[in-house]
Every structure is written in C-alpha cells, then in structure tokens.
Specification:
Layout: H1 3-14, H2 21-30, E1 42-49, E2 56-63, H3 66-76, H4 78-86, H5 91-102, H6 104-109, H7 111-115, E3 121-132, E4 138-146, H8 153-156, E5 158-164, H9 173-190, H10 209-214, E6 224-231
Parallel strand pairs: 3-6
Antiparallel strand pairs: 1-2, 3-4, 4-5
C-alpha cells in the first residue's frame, strides 16, 4: 500500500463511529483488495477476571493464527511472502549454515530441521511485551516474524494477539492464550493445516467447516516455520 492509499485507509477507518463501528470496520476491511492477505481472526474462549476483580468468567478472545497468515501471504501475496519470510535466493540455506557454524547442537537437535530442507525452513522468532492502553491499564502484545530477513521492526512484526493484563486470571488466562499460539506454531512447523483446534476438537462440517476442508493440506508449498528465538517476554509470561 502506498502512502496515499494508507492515508485514505486511515481516514476511512476514522470515519466509522457509533455502536456499530466495529461491524462497519469489518465490512469495510473485507472490501479491500489486500483483505485476502489477512485470514479471519480465530475466536476462542479465555478465562477473565470480573471487572470488580472478584470471581472469573469465560469470554471470547481473537487472534491471528501464524500458520494461517503464513498460508494467506504465500497464496495471495507470494512476493510479500518471500520479502517477509525468505529473502533472496539461498538466504534460508545460508542462515541455517551460519547457525550451524555457531550452534551446531541447536540445529542437530531441532526436530523441524531433521524433517525439512534448510531452503524451505523459515526460522521464526516470537516477541512479547507490555504496551500502554489508557489510564493505568496495559496489554501484552505478542508478535512473530522470520529472523532470516532484516527489516525495520514496524515492517516485519506480525501480530498474533493482545491481552489486557488487568483481566488476566493469575496462572490461567495466559496459559490458555499461549496454548492457542503454540498450537498454531506447531502447525506452522509441519507446513500443513491442522485437523483440529488447540483443545484437540476436530474440525468438521459443523465446527469451522472451512478449516475442515483445508485439514492436512500444505500451508505454503512445502515451506515451514521453525521456532528459533524468544525476545522481550516479561517474566510473568512464564514460557
């Protein structure tokens, strides 16, 4: 998107107001030419603290699944896929060769490296940190990217999801949140769509039929993602 297009997009989003603003933004988004590059957010249950801090409730949370973003970029924006994840021809092979030179045990013991050729193996870094929202509230923001290519942070971090710190049930909410993230990263490491969700429930014609139709199919022509590093996670994340 060029600068003019970005400015127009910001003005369009800012024009939505009122009780149906979120619905209108979603409708607008789906009319944009670049909408296919971003999959529909995955909605799942999380445990939250009640507003008064006494007791808990189950609410809905949304996230952009890494394995689905990997697929949509490869399918609808192959040039962007290579720009963000692969780099120039031979870059992935070079990255793994250099990693092996400095840390052979990591490569030898990495389960994905044993199954996938280096030139199809995208090393994935994940990042988490607090960000301010309003008043004294903060949110955990979790993102990921290929560490085989170098771009400015704003240009290569891909959002997984955000989570309000004030709503987290200690020892529970974050665990549930990360189970979804790990499930998607595991699917990314196989290079194939999963057959079921993070709880092991199988997709079928009544439960995410679109995901059931893709189950077992390749995400990105044989490319996979292999976890390679953590960055910036606060101590409470307890990964």
């Amino acid at each position: 998107m060029n600068t003019f297009g970005a400015s127009e997009a910001v003005r369009a989003i800012a024009s939505f107001d009122g009780p149906n603003a979120e619905r209108d933004i979603q409708r607008w988004f789906r009319t944009q030419a670049w909408a296919k590059l971003v999959p529909h957010p995955f909605e799942f249950d999380l445990s939250f603290l009640k507003p008064d801090g006494v007791g808990t409730y189950t609410g809905k949370q949304s996230a952009l699944l890494p394995h689905e973003v990997f697929h949509t970029l490869y399918t609808y924006g192959p040039e962007l896929f290579h720009h963000l994840f692969v780099g120039r021809p031979g870059n992935l092979l070079h990255w793994w060769q250099e990693t092996y030179r400095t840390n052979p045990e990591f490569v030898d013991n990495h389960p994905v490296c044993k199954e996938t050729p280096a030139d199809y193996n995208v090393p994935i870094g994940v990042h988490g940190d607090d960000t301010g929202i309003f008043d004294h509230d903060k949110a955990l923001c979790v993102s990921w990217n290929s560490v085989a290519v170098q771009h400015q942070t704003i240009d290569n971090r891909i959002l997984f999801g955000t989570l309000s710190l004030t709503k987290m049930v200690p020892g529970l909410t974050l665990h549930e949140f990360y189970r979804v993230f790990v499930w998607s990263l595991n699917a990314l490491s196989t290079g194939k769509f999963p057959y079921g969700d993070h709880n092991g429930k199988l997709f079928d014609q009544n439960y995410y039929p679109d995901k059931a139709a893709n189950a077992g199919k390749q995400l990105a022509g044989g490319f996979v993602g292999a976890w390679s590093e953590f960055r910036g996670f606060p101590i409470y994340c307890n990964l």
